[in-house]
Design a protein that fits this description.
- By secondary structure, the chain is an all-alpha fold.
- It has a domain of about 80 residues: Four Helix Bundle (Hemerythrin (Met), subunit A) (Up-down Bundle), CATH 1.20.120.660.
- Helices cover about 80% and strands about 0% of the residues.
Length: about 120
């Protein structure tokens, strides 16, 4: 009977460590590649180069999809629709709306303050 209890305790400890790691993962995500590609797309869109804008926005979209496949992230799930809109608008020839969508995605990627825990007075 004691071996059963020991096995159950080890099993619970193993699963609790996995949950603790998963809970902390989104805070440490690296969006540098997506940010660089998005900034490049915004710059080419402001210059009026539609082909370069679409290419760079698609590259940023592909990079964000790759990172979502590696690890699910709430911030990436908010960024992807904005990049999809940018690509769609760029292909339609509406660069101003495309650049606005990319800049909205960039604002979501910006550095966030460290999380604050506890109350305040």
């Amino acid at each position: 009977m004691k071996l059963k209890n020991l096995f159950a305790a080890l099993l619970l400890a193993f699963f609790s460590l996995g949950v603790a790691h998963a809970a902390g993962a989104p805070m440490n995500e690296d969006l540098a590649k997506i940010l660089a590609l998005s900034q490049k797309a915004a710059a080419s869109g402001k210059e009026g180069n539609a082909a370069a804008f679409v290419q760079d926005a698609e590259a940023a979209l592909q990079q964000s999809k790759t990172q979502i496949e590696q690890r699910s992230s709430p911030s990436l799930e908010r960024i992807v629709p904005k990049l999809k809109t940018a690509v769609r608008e760029g292909k339609a020839g509406n660069l101003t709306a495309g650049v606005e969508a990319v800049e909205a995605a960039i604002s979501l990627m910006g550095k966030k303050d460290a999380p604050k825990f506890g109350g305040g007075s």
